[in-house]
Write a sequence for this structure.
């Protein structure tokens, strides 16, 4: 098992990509802390029934105090925090003509500020341990701009990409690696509302000619969370069926 005795905090872990990351990390021996504003308990219970080590942390990541309290509770109970996966994210569709200031602020608050609050909360523990791994789930939209008419989403993921690289540089001296996974077109609730025509258009532009599965993103996260990627930091790993090759 690749993550035996590791404690991994995963945000947005109640469903979709985050849940698959939690499942895979738990299978690999980690204690997984499932952070989510909806359904964290239910998801953690399901893992516990399968005899995995899972802790529910029901909170909204835009609440910095709640984030700090949760991280301190986990560190107090388990003694260490080894891995943080910043996966929780939202999208607001609408081009520049329709997008409201409220939507802009909401997406930035979850995707960028929430990510920052989690990093800020876990980094002191990781520095004390002189080890840690942070993985940000970004998007192809952070590299090429959003192709589904959601400019605020692309902007938020672009911010995460540069945050990933900045923290990778700043935290390397402390034995902390910071990387990101950039998925595209993954079958989850987030992509479920695409009209059929749009879906076919998206699939048609992907060299592998299909949507991706959340499990395939989880495998990339496991690689970055394990010793197999020990010389990799500041990387933004594509999981996109070949849509963007950079
Ligand atoms: N599905 C895709 O095609 C795709 C593509 C590229 C990137 N991504 C990224 O992958 C990540 C996961 O996406 P998904 O498709 O699994 O989405 P999803 O909508 O299925 O799941 C997101 C989870 O995050 C939780 N969440 C949202 N806001 C939160 C908050 N403020 N506090 C706590 N929890 C919150 C939700 O409750 C939900 O359980 C996101 O960051 C998304 O931007 C997804």
């Amino acid at each position: 098992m690749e993550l035996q005795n590791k404690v991994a905090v995963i945000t947005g872990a109640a469903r979709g990509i985050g849940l698959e990351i939690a499942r895979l990390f738990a299978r690999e021996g980690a204690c997984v802390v499932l952070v989510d504003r909806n359904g964290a308990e239910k998801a953690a219970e399901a893992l516990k029934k399968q005899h995995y080590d899972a802790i529910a942390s029901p909170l909204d990541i835009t609440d910095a105090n709640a984030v700090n309290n949760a991280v301190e509770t986990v560190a107090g109970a388990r003694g260490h925090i080894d891995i943080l996966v910043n996966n929780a994210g939202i999208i607001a569709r609408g081009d520049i003509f329709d997008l409201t200031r409220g939507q802009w602020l909401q997406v930035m608050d979850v995707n960028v500020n929430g990510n920052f609050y989690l990093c800020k909360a876990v980094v002191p523990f990781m520095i004390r341990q002189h080890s840690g791994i942070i993985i940000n789930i970004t998007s192809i939209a952070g590299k090429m701009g959003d192709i589904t008419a959601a400019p605020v989403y692309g902007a938020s993921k672009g911010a995460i990409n540069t945050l990933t690289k900045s923290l990778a540089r700043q935290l390397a001296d402390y034995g902390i690696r910071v990387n990101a996974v950039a998925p595209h077109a993954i079958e989850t609730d987030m992509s479920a509302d695409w009209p059929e025509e749009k879906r076919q258009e998206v699939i048609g532009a992907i060299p592998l000619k299909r949507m991706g599965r959340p499990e395939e993103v989880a495998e990339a996260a496991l690689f970055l969370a394990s010793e197999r990627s020990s010389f990799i930091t500041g990387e933004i790993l594509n999981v996109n069926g070949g849509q963007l090759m950079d």
